[in-house]
Predict the 3D structure of the following.
Amino acid sequence: MIQDILEGIRSTLEKNYKDFAVYTEAIPQGFERPCFFVKNLTTGRVKQIGKFHLLDHPFVIQYFSNTKRKNEDYYKVSEELYGLLKFMENRRIWGSDISSQVVDGVLHFFVTYRIRAKESIEELDDMQILDIRSDLKNE
């Protein structure tokens, strides 16, 4: 499931920013700007009634600009990312807790995808008949 969401984010970025590299594993040393780095943060799972769980999949998308007017570029890209990532087409889920901030000259765009999932429980075989015989000893 996380991989599907990650792939959806990656393909959305590649489709809309054709000249930008998109990294999902690690940023190579000496990378060229502009580029994106997509990372899944701490995933959470909350038990709900019955066989259901609420799964939180928070992501951070880091954008490294190559312009001299970085803040202006970051504000523009942040607005664009909100429009692009608020709904994940490949999983048909909405993003929540969407925010962004610039730290150390890098835009950090945060989005969480919440999914309600049904737990699959392994079916057990029916019980078999057990025949028990017992005798009492007479003393």
